[in-house]
Amino acid sequence: MRTWLYLEPIFSSEDIIRQMPAEAAKFQKVDKLWRDTMTAVSENPGVIDVAEIENLLANFTDANKNLDIIQKCLNDYLETKRLAFPRFFFLSNEELLMILSQTKDPTAVQPHMGKCFEGINKVRFNDACEIIEAMLSVEGEEVEYFKKVNVVEGDKKGAVEKWLYEVQNTMIHSLTVIMGQCVKAYPETKRDQWVTEWPGQCVICVDNIYWTKEVTEAIENNDLPGYYDVLVEQLTALVELVRGELTKLARRTLGAMVTIDVHNRDVVGQLVDAKI
After folding, report:
1. pTM to 2 decimals?
2. Residues 6 or more apart from 205 whose CB is under 8 A from it?
3. Where are the alpha helices (DSSP H) in 20-92?
4. Which residues does 60 contact at the CB level (< 8 Å), separation at least 6?
């Protein structure tokens, strides 16, 4: 009974039936047996009448065996999907089945994006819900994809694991390109302007890239005290920026950057005290 209750909504989905036709046919036989038996019991609820139903025990014993086989095949099927797109391991069976049972609706994956990709809350589709154009964080930060993902193109149609794999690759490619542009823009732009023009992840990463580079140069030039003063000035400028009018997203990025810059300043201060 419990297994039937679990499997019944799963095999009510046309997408699951299409992807697992043999198991769906088996389940339909079990489902028919259960419904026919319950109809007969409803019409004649007496214990003697129920006990006289022909082959009742044998039929239900066989049905339970078939349900166990169907359950195993379903688990094997989910395993193949997880191996095709390993981030599905972050989802429970129920969450993965929710996605796979609605493959005609690519947006059904939206509630589960946060579990598949840390930092991504959802993706942005075009009006036809066929092209993925950008990714968005919980805070509302939006990063455009340099290569759009067509979820209905070729063998990707109905194969969510294939177009999510492409989303992953496009995400990496887009951030790699943006990171390179952000690195190049840092020395060419005023720091308090630069920090509000790029995605938060890139800002924090590039800030640390240049801090590492500049600390190394200061050590080589025996000028850590001078660099410490530079860090204090940079931190003071950021604090002033935080006190001004900012969007909620920019304020969050700056808050994280100030925390890291305070740590970086303290590290350099310890190096100065140690006379490195």
Report:
1. 0.78
2. 179, 182
3. 21-43, 47-51, 56-84
4. 33, 37
